[in-house]
Amino acid sequence: MTVDVDAGKKAEDQPGYVAQLQATLNVIPAHTWYASPSGGLTFVNKRTADYLGLPNDHPLRFGIDVGAQWDAHLPFVHPDDRAETQENWSTRLRTGEGGEGSFRVRNAQGGYRWFLSRAEPLRASDGTILQWVGVNLDIEELKSAEDALRESEQKLQMIIDTIPAHVVRYRPDGAADFMNQTFSEFVGPGVGFDNLSSVVHPEDYPERSRDWDTHVAAAEPYDIEMRLRRADGVYRWHRSRRVPLRDANGAIMNWYGAGHDIDDQKRAEQALRRSEAHLAEAQRLSRTGASAYNATTILYWSEETYRIFGFDPRDGLPSREVVWQRIHPDDRNRVRAEVEGAQNGKGGFSSEFRIVLPDGTVKYIESIRQPVFSANGELVEVVATHIDVTERKRAEEAYREAQLELAHANRVATMGQLTASITHEVNQPITAAVTYALAARRWLSAEPPNFHEVDEALSLIVKEGNRAGEVVGRVRALIKKAPARKDAVEINDAILEVIALTRTEAANNSVSVRTQLAEGLPRVQGDRVQLQQVLLNLIINAIEAMRDVGEEERELLISTRNEPDGVSVEVRDSGPGFASAALERVFEAFYTTKPGGLGLGLSICRSIIEAHNGQLWASPNVPRGAIFRFIAPAHPAAAS
User: Fold this and answer.
1) Integer Cα distance of 508 and 496 in angstroms
2) Distance between CA atoms of 478 and 259, rounded to whole angstroms?
3) How far apart are CA 56 and CA 75, in angstroms?
4) CATH number at 163-261
5) Taking a C-beta distance cutoff of 8 angstroms, is the pair 132, 39 a contact?
6) Is the pLDDT reported for residue 217 higher than 60?
7) Is the Cβ–Cβ distance between 180 and 252 less than 8 Å?
8) Considering only the top CATH level, what class is 389-482?
9) Where would I find the H helices in 259-389?
């Protein structure tokens, strides 16, 4: 800045000029000042004087040169900024060139605010510096904004570096020019923007590179999975998504990408796929399907469920009504009631039913269902398993048939043991009938014939014939092969019939048979012949067991008793009993204590009783012998 000053006169010697300069500086809406050529502060405008808190009569308010030193103003500057400010002002004075600097200045209240100070030399026409003129702009808000911006940038950088993702920035042409700390630490030292592609797995790089170039050219977002090499040399699967950042005109300024390590997820997915494959194979092998449904819709079916019910998975989930139509008509209403009951209740349930496939094939299904409810008690869904038990049902039927065959064979064999007793039982009424017939002939030959005696004899013949017929009928019933029945059986009558069949066998073995049969017993539910078979086996076993004790000690007691869940029957003998080890195995198939036994009788007996939903067990008798006891459930009609 140059002014025209008369030769030989100084600017300060011209009162009009100085007054004009001070008036100008006072009206400028900024903090202004001027200093002597040597740098000593000479004048500050009113705004600056008031800010600094200078007294009203302070020389700086009036521009009175008191010969201040060039750095006399530094006490107004913040201590942390003084050295830089002093160096800057010294440079201005030494070079004579204008310049600027920023520093904090203390105000009248003792606080500090940032100012940007600009100083320029005022020169005479010959180039001599007449004064230094300066303006200080309050930049406190700007500095605060800059600090906030820097802090925000630092926080943003920290956030980007802390994000648990691999962040990379790319130029518009697709070349990387920034990576966050997380990704930098992942790839390790020595990997920069020039060789970033080297971390991509060799098998993945060619295709991924072509895809990236294609997306950059098309300006389309990019989403891909690939393997990246970690700093330790291990390749891990990543998923990367890159999107363009556009300016107001739509031009791409940069691309930004974020990648995530999905290696654990990939491994979990592979393990899940293997698990699902194993589960599907296990369901296929075990013929067990899984499903889920709510009150209106089927939500899920496993592949095996489709196979069991005869539907094609490619057709999607069938409707509930179509599935209901597959259930056997005789079972449908029962199953529907069970399902509705489970949905209205809180617990799981199981049921068995039949389904009929379109080709007429009938399958037996065992289903287990567990309802799932929300916190407020509303039904969310029902999870179910469906097991195809058709083969098991066939096997069970075959097993029952085999049991019936074996039980029949056992009865025939037992009856064979009683041949002599049965012969005796039949022979007695036949012999008596013959005797009565001979007597009737004699009464007919008498003169005159005694028809009264003949009638008496004939009545006795009929009685003995009926007696023989009853014996034969009982034997025939036990030997006859017939399907199992569920009749209402008078257990005491059945016991007495068996005792009658074995009476001679017991007498021949000097066994005293006693009964304690309770009165008023309810009828039991079962097959009369099978229950008599159990009794026959137990009685014959007891008679045989007592052959090794003295004749006076051979006692057999058969008793019945009413129980809460049915009727108990007890066969108690006074034989040698069982050793504790034998007692635990007595019902095992093919286990026997008889020299010539097969070990099937008691096993068959237990199977028969369990088939009747009863129990059969053995225990020691006191002081000696064994007790066999079974409970048969009461017939529903009797129980009610």
Assistant:
1) 18
2) 84
3) 19
4) 3.30.450.20
5) yes
6) yes
7) no
8) mainly alpha
9) 263-286, 303-309, 320-326, 329-344
Looking at residue 57, the DSSP 8-state letter turns out to be T
Higher pLDDT, 440 or 166: 166
pLDDT tens for each residue of 535-561? 888 888 888 888 888 877 889 999 999
Of the pLDDT bands very low, low, confident and very high (cuts 50, 70, 90), residue 424 is low
Whether 239 and 260 have beta carbons less than 8 Å apart is answered as: yes
Query: How many C-beta atoms surround the C-beta of residue 551 within 10 A?
Result: 11
Residues of the chain with CATH 1.10.287: 389-482
Residue from 238, 198, 241 nearest 221 by CA:
241
What's the CA gap between 394 and 364, in Å, rounded?
A: 10
Nearest to 258 by CA among 238, 241, 279: 241
**Reported pTM:** 0.41
What is the C-alpha to C-alpha distance for residues 36 and 83, in angstroms, rounded to an integer?
Answer: 21
How distant, in Å, are the alpha carbons of 37, 70, 559 from that of 10?
12, 20, 150
pLDDT for position 2: 46
Cis peptide before 522 (omega within 30 of 0): no
Q: How confident is the model at residue 392 (pLDDT cuts 50, 70, 90)?
A: confident
* Confidence label for 7 from pLDDT (cuts 50, 70 and 90): very low
Helix (H) / strand (E) element for 460: namely: helix 451-479
Is residue 285's pLDDT more than 80? no
| Helix-, strand-, coil-residue percentages of the chain, each rounded to 5 | 45, 25, 30
Q: Looking at the domain covering 11-144, what would its CATH class be?
A: alpha beta
Can you identify the CATH homologous superfamily of domain 288-388? Answer: PAS domain (3.30.450.20)
**Would you list the DSSP string of 213-254?**
HHHHHHT--EEEEEEEE-TTS-EEEEEEEEEEEE-TTS-EEE
CA 18/CA 108 separation, integer angstroms:
27
- What is the mean pLDDT of the segment spanning 21-49? 93
Type of residue numbered 360: G
Looking at the chain, the domain(s) classified CATH 3.30.450.20 span 11-144, 163-261, 288-388
The answer to whether the CB of 346 falls within 8 A of the CB of 371 is yes
How are beta strands 512-516 and 555-563 bridged, if at all? parallel
Predicted pLDDT at 470: 61
Q: pLDDT class for 43, splitting at 50, 70, 90?
A: very high
Q: What CATH number belongs to 484-640?
A: 3.30.565.10
- pLDDT score of 282 more than 70: yes
Cα dist from 236 to 45, 146, 226, 262, whole Å? 70, 42, 8, 8
State both tokens at 453.
Answer: 């005696």
Per-residue pLDDT at 475: 57
The span from the CA of 103 to the CA of 485, in Å, is 113
E strand or H helix that includes residue 141 = helix 140-162
Element (H, E) at 300: strand 298-301
Higher pLDDT, 14 or 212: 212
pLDDT tens string 620-631: 888 888 899 999
Inform me whether the pLDDT recorded for 408 exceeds 70.
no
